[in-house]
């Protein structure tokens, strides 16, 4: 991680993570909400009625989640700076073949771990005490993209952090996935799908997850849901889900 020496301490690392996390959340969610739910409302969500209390609740839990994650992730990122992980910086250290293979390995590890973690979060007690805070938004908007209890949020992000201890991961692969997860979270909460390839856990799949509650637990793909018997075809969603 290419950061000046002044960031090589816990308080500065925490500030760096939380500021970047909040900026990314508010910019991405704000732009998505404005485009799909305000400017192009008549096209994408014609019956949508703005509910200020829901938006405020979404933003509150998103901020709590981001702060909570920064508290836990800051020490992990300090370990990167101190070369106490398997993160590496030069492609030549392991070669192009490993770089490509590590991306697929990273995807498999995170996809598998997040599916089972997410499924566990829907058990009665974890759901009641942790995951309910996200599912209070049955018809989500982009503001709900990272609106989680911080323990819930970190539990689902943990596989990404574990990878840097399990096998060599290039810094840009690790940071790229962490950034893309936030982008993906915004995309799958706007209830607008631009792809329909059902191998991908695209927006309509996640909309079905919020609507039906016990299906489509995958991260980016649907193969674990199909193997685990938790797949729900988004074509079964009622029309009002997309109109409101």
Description:
- The protein has 244 residues and is an all-alpha fold.
- Helices cover 64% and strands 2% of the residues.
- Helix 4 packs antiparallel against helix 6.
- The protein is globular and about 55 Å long.
- The model has no long low-confidence stretch (mean pLDDT 93).
The largest sheet has its strands arranged as 1-2
Q: Residue-averaged pLDDT, rounded?
A: 93
Q: Give the amount of beta strand, in percent.
A: under 5%
User: Number of folding domains?
Assistant: 1
Structural class: mainly alpha
Main pleated-sheet profile: 2 strands, parallel
Shape: globular
**Strand/helix succession:** HHHEHHHEHHHH
Unreliable spans are none
Helical content class: 55-70%
Measured distance between first and last alpha carbons:
43 Å
Count of DSSP H/I helices: 10
The total strand number stands at 2
How large is the radius of gyration?
Answer: 18 Å
């Amino acid at each position: 991680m290419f950061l000046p020496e002044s960031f090589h301490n816990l308080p500065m690392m925490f500030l760096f993570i939380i500021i970047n996390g909040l900026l990314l959340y508010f910019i991405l969610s704000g732009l998505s909400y404005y485009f799909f739910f305000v400017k192009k409302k008549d096209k994408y969500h014609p019956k949508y009625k703005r509910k200020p209390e829901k938006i405020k609740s979404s933003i509150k839990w998103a901020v709590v989640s981001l702060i909570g994650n920064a508290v836990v992730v800051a020490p992990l990122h300090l370990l990167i700076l101190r070369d106490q992980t398997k993160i590496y910086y030069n492609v030549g250290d392991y070669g192009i073949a490993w770089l490509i293979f590590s991306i697929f390995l990273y995807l498999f590890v995170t996809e598998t771990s997040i599916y089972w973690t997410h499924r566990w979060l829907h058990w009665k007690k974890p759901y009641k005490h942790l995951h309910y805070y996200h599912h209070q938004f049955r018809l989500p908007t982009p503001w709900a993209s990272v609106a989680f209890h911080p323990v819930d949020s970190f539990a689902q992000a943990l596989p990404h952090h574990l990878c840097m201890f399990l096998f060599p991961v290039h810094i840009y692969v690790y940071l790229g996935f962490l950034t893309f997860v936030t982008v993906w979270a915004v995309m799958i909460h706007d209830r607008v799908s631009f792809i329909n390839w059902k191998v991908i856990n695209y927006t309509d799949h996640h909309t079905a997850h919020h609507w039906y509650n016990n299906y489509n637990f995958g991260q980016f793909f649907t193969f674990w849901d199909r193997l685990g018997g938790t797949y729900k075809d988004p074509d079964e969603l009622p029309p009002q889900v997309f109109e409101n």
